[in-house]
# Entry
Amino acid sequence: MTQPKNFGFGVDEAMLRDSARKFFADNCSADKIHSQVANNFDIYRDIESIWDKNLWSQICELGWTAACVPEEAGGIGMPVVAAVALAEEAGKAAFPSPLLSTFNATFALRACKSDAATKVLGEIATGTSATLAITNQKGSWEAQDTDVTVTDGKLSGTAWFVQDAKKVERLVVSASTDNGVGLYVVDPAATGLQIIADGIIDLTRDQAHIVFNNVEAIEVAAPGNGDKALNEALPAILCITSADIVGSGEWLLQTTTDYATVRVQFDRPLGFFQAVKHPLVNVMLAVDQTKSLVYNAACAIDSEPEQAERLARMAKSSASDMAVFSSSRSVQFHGGIGFTWECFIHVFFKRQMHNHVLYGDAKYQRAKLADMLMGKAA
Amino acid sequence: MSDAAKKDTPEQAEFRAHCQQWLTENHPGQPNVHIPQGALELSDPDALQWLKQWQKSAYDAGLIGADYSKETGGRGLKDCQAIANQEMQRAKTPFFPNIIGLGMAAPTVYFHAQESVKQELLPKLLSGEHIWCQGFSEPGAGSDLANQQTFAEKKGDTWVINGHKVWTSLAHFADWMILLCRTSKDDKYNGLSYFVVPIQSMIGKGVTVNPLIKLTGETGFNEVIFEDLVVEDKYRLDEVGAGWKVAMTTLAHERGAGLLTTPSAGGMVMEKEKGAGIGNAMSLIDLAKQSYRNGKTAADDGAIRDSIMELMIRQEGFRQNQRRIGVKELNDHPMRLPLQFKLVATEMGQDIAQLAYEIEGASSSLYVNDENAAAGGQWQLAYMNSFGVTIAAGANEVQRNILGERVLNMPKSK
Ligand SMILES: Cc1cc2nc3c(=O)[nH]c(=O)nc-3n(C[C@H](O)[C@H](O)[C@H](O)COP(=O)(O)OP(=O)(O)OC[C@H]3O[C@@H](n4cnc5c(N)ncnc54)[C@H](O)[C@@H]3O)c2cc1C
# Structure
């Protein structure tokens, strides 16, 4: 199979992206987000999940959660690049919402190819939010690793590093049985379930570990199929996270070059000095390389699936490196003000720190790629 | 159907089929002379002759100049040169010797010369019958290109040229030169004018060409000295004083950001096995499997594996950037990706070659003149030559200024 030249990014995708751009420009200026998520600088503050539910309802009405739900399940059935474009815009706004998690859950459910999963996808299409609970305490990103088990159809154990756990209405949980890993959909309000929020650096997300004690669950992928479904969804998950990094990276780039144009020292704007200008150009190169790799990988999921994992790992490797680079240069080139809580940079800096490790950092992705392309090391 | 062929217009599809068929029947095969890694290192007249022959046959078949008008020796097609390039890359043909002519002189002449001059010069340029060189750099005008001191003085209907050019690639073989020089000392930028001037036919009659030896020991560039060279006025491109504007057309094409697609072949592996895949990050995998570092297979070394993957990712990113240039909706600034081309391509090439010799461990000390050298020592040569391209065509530091100023709108660094 081959990819279309335009990454499958056609008129409809561009219209959706442009409407998202407008939505964020109208509703989510950086100062608004900052005053919302950064109103308490106490380093030992109580853990909170801060987000604007009203904006989220508007997004659901606009149909964003339906974008990548297949038509058979009641969605719009757009290609993965549509979700990627929305994630990029959300990243540019550092938008606190379950959007990315819901996309990730969508791709995992799609890969289940079961009636039960299709039913949940239908709920997502009408605005039900969801997230993945698929990571163990050791932080393994491998699909077969989970600390949750299934007995008589009920879940027990703990899922770790669950994104947006306090915001969502559905959990997609991986759990092991004697016959392999299955996937299960759970209502966060179910009896026997406890969400314990993690204290995290990123101000625009929440994260938790979730304890299951004999919790009722709907099986969406039978034992033995769950890890397969997650592996199939993995390229999309990596693309969504990387797209968020691209958006945040672009915001950091534009904000910092603007600052370098207005801030004057030694009678010159900072951007006159090549020690400032050239690294910012390097940030741009890193953002662009990543953006191209992300759209390429996302396009592969729909048109060249046998290449998708390789290309998505390339995208996430590039993205994770860029997450660190774009945020570090932005703080540095803002000087003292960049090191304050008052400056908006830290919100994006922290989102990038979180994104950097999520679903595996650059070195991890490259180690996986090397195993794929070179064979395992002796 | 190939990937690229999917969205061809009918004209492109027909042309692609023609290219494919012609290349199957007319691939020139392995040369019987030694061919260097790139055209900028050409010094052997026999190698030049062999490559000129190849360029001529590709031109006669329409694979060069596809998008140029018929009057100027082209085919008068639309967006077909890129098709020919793709097919020549796929067929792994040798490179063209008239690289500066095709990449820089031709588009500049096409956009700025008077009609009769275009018709006189372009057909022989495209066919490779005439080799061209670029006379921009001077001892005192490198990165600061507008600091030209070579002077053209109007005498009646002609111009008399005096001055000193350096680093002039291919001048030793060149029939013609694109020349940037000064026609007025009153204004740095508006005092510049642009000419095309004959070289080979005027040696000893106002033109002297002296070869310069590169860091590698190869030749390929020269100094060119003008002493009262007389040039007809019709060979002036655009207005007197418009030299800087014309030079921008040349530079845009040189950096891969011009309006016309440069005819380019390449990808042929010279000298059979030796040097296969030089310049391609993908080939580092095989190199690592065959090389030893500290007595162990390089492909098992975690740091080497990580570095190879990093470069393969950069290479894929570079390829996808070129693809994304064509998708308007995914480019918020039209020049942002095109202006990155030269910088990214040359630094990636340098880093790939550098990693290659790290992979080779102790045996990376062996060079092209040692029969035990891995890949014929070509990686080492490629690494050394890679500095030519990070410096030439505007040093990469200057490229970063351009990107920072024109794309990111930061203040000028001067
Ligand atoms: C292999 C090769 C082939 C060439 N072929 C041709 C040719 O055919 N025709 C032709 O006209 N020229 C040619 N050149 C010349 C080339 O264009 C110049 O070498 C180049 O523009 C740099 O000029 P320079 O050598 O005078 O270096 P300088 O201008 O002296 O610069 C030296 C170094 O200083 C740094 N630097 C310079 N300016 C700045 C700045 N503003 N900001 C930050 N850093 C800066 C860069 O690192 C640069 O490499 C060739 C050069 C090479 C190496």
Q: What stands out?
A: Chain B touches chain A through 51 residues (CB under 8 Å). The pocket of flavin-adenine dinucleotide is lined by residues A 274; B 40, 133-137, 142-143, 167-169, 221, 388, 391-392, 394-395, 397-398, 401 (CB under 6 Å).
